[in-house]
């Protein structure tokens, strides 16, 4: 019996649980960390762009964004099209980013301990292919 999906799900849950244990004392949760990483990489973006990238349903993303705005981590601004609201990181989030990144990197390094670079490259290619296959459906 092949249980690839089950093992991926179990690993993801373990990863998220451990990440939350590490960064929640710093005032952040894994769902928010994904938003922050996206905004650091892409800059000012719409909620739709963030939702699409993170593969999160709109109501879930709305709750995350609302919470982050209340915590002073993001701001929303209107674009040329008044219906489009752009989200960007605040100075507070930018100031805390390195602290969050350090904790996230530390946890990730513990997770990949003992796995050689070639296997990690293969792992990333496999995950990318699986995601692409699922996106085609």
TrEMBL record:
Which PROSITE patterns does the entry mention?
A: HTH_MARR_2
Give the record's keywords alphabetically: DNA-binding, Transcription, Transcription regulation
Q: Which residues form the HTH marR-type domain?
A: 1-132
Q: Which InterPro entries match?
A: ArsR-like_HTH, HTH_MarR-typ, WH-like_DNA-bd_sf, WH_DNA-bd_sf
- Stored SUPFAM superfamilies: Winged helix' DNA-binding domain
Q: Does the keyword Transcription regulation apply?
A: yes
Pfam families linked to this entry: MarR_2
Domain of life of the native organism: Bacteria
- GO MF annotations in UniProt: DNA binding; DNA-binding transcription factor activity
PANTHER family assigned: TRANSCRIPTIONAL REGULATOR, MARR, TRANSCRIPTIONAL REPRESSOR OF EMRAB OPERON
Q: What name does this protein carry?
A: MarR family transcriptional regulator
The beginning of the lineage is: Bacteria, Bacillati, Bacillota, Bacilli, Bacillales
């Amino acid at each position: 019996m092949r249980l690839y999906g089950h093992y991926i799900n179990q690993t993801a849950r373990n990863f998220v649980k451990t990440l939350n244990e590490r960064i929640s004392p710093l005032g952040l949760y894994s769902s928010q960390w994904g938003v922050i990483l996206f905004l650091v990489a892409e800059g000012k973006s719409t909620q739709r762009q963030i939702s699409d990238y993170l593969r999160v349903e709109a109501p879930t993303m709305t709750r995350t964004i609302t919470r982050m705005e209340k915590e002073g981590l993001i701001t929303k601004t209107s674009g040329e099209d008044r219906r489009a609201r752009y989200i960007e990181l605040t100075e507070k989030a930018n100031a805390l980013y390195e602290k969050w990144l350090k904790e996230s990197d530390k946890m990730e390094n513990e997770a990949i301990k003992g796995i050689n670079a070639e296997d990690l490259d293969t792992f990333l290619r496999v995950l990318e292919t699986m995601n692409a296959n699922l996106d085609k459906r």
